[in-house]
Fold:
Amino acid sequence: MNKYQLPSDSKLRSKEFVFGVATSAYQIEGGVKEGGRTPSIWDTFCKKPGKVDNGDSGDVACDHYHLWKQDIEMIQGLGVDAYRLSIAWPRILPQDGVVNQEGLEFYGEIIKECHARGLKVYVTLYHWDLPQYLEDKGGWLNRETSYKFAEYAEAVSQYFGDTIDVYTTLNEPFVSAFLGYRWGEHAPGIKGEREGYLASHHLMLGHGLAMPILRKNAPNAKHGVVFNATPAYPFTEQDQAAADYCEAENYHWFIDPVLKGEYPQLVLDRQASNLPMILEGDLDIISAPVDYIGINYYTRNVARFNENGDIESVKQTDAEHTYIGWEINPQGLTDLMVRLNERYDNLPPIYITENGAAGNDECVNGVVEDEQRVRYFQGHIEAVHNAVEAGVKIDGYFAWSLMDNFEWAFGYCQRFGIVHVDYQTQKRTLKQSAIAYRNMLQERAEENR
Ligand code: FCB
Structure:
């Protein structure tokens, strides 16, 4: 297949539907000591032995800090409508209270270049790279960090205003809080149930505090937040409650406070001894209206109660998995969209802000055959279409990722790009999955002409 197929009458064919590609700062930039940037928690974490596969780090990554111009040209070449990137907090505020003009200008150039090439710009403020100086004061365990995030949102939005088309406060607060502060698999590597929940509340509070600031400084931009969400299915009929709890903890815990102004009862009950201090008024702050929510979807979860009554995930051995071990399940994306639509009366429009597949792709004579990824995208684009047909308002879809990059604790061995990166030479090569994306978008552009 050299082109993803869109059903003939699909909303996805219209120009109003946004197709894009996504990246994040620490995963692609490198240049960690340049332009006045100071370390983030990921710089520190990568140096700890055994934390990241192969001892990899984002020190160089895709060298996007230097190659950004050619990368944006390449994005335009794909024919997408939008580019989703993140800003590195420690480039903007390298020290507490000190705004770094050079950092602002770096992203200013990128945004200008995108607009000159007809691309809309979706900017995430926090894609996990907390300044280390804030971690030194407790990081997301410290309520003060929520207010520091608001200061950072002020610095960015005051400078950029409406030149950023779509602002995102946080990317996947579940992962920041639970992988970072509960299970210790991500920076800063803290393990503790209470810590995880405390961090989650402070992240959401930071989101809520930032919202009115973003609206004030960028009144014509769109503002929202991005969640990872994994629909859960019971292993047997007896396991329905296990699946329900998984969804509650995985995404109701993060979305309910925003859209309902409350935390889900299932989690409040099960985690009673781990709950953070929720001050009066916090939920009012967190539930400030958003213009959209972003959903990152990769896989589904099949859950059951084990002999001890604990909840565990069951790997579906008969299903197909990607290189990272995640089950390929496009139906899960449609189901998830429908579940969100049913759960929230006031569900704003959704962007699928990430979706993609990991491989260990090789470039042979300038060609990268990523047949599984091509099928993955075809299936998931159809799944989005099906959700739209089922009545869910979905306004866009972003492939994760533009190019192979630093995949957090997996380092560089998991390749998520639709563009291959040779880390020795920094050469970029479009994979078959990128070519199929480009061809689909070209056909759509011709139709809309
Ligand atoms: C998401 C992250 C993104 C990338 C993908 C594979 O959880 O937002 O940075 O690592 O997973």
The mean pLDDT is 98. Residues 24, 27, 171-172, 175, 228, 296, 354, 400, 407-408, 416 surround beta-D-fucopyranose (CB under 6 Å). The chain has 15 helices and 13 strands. The radius of gyration is 21 Å.
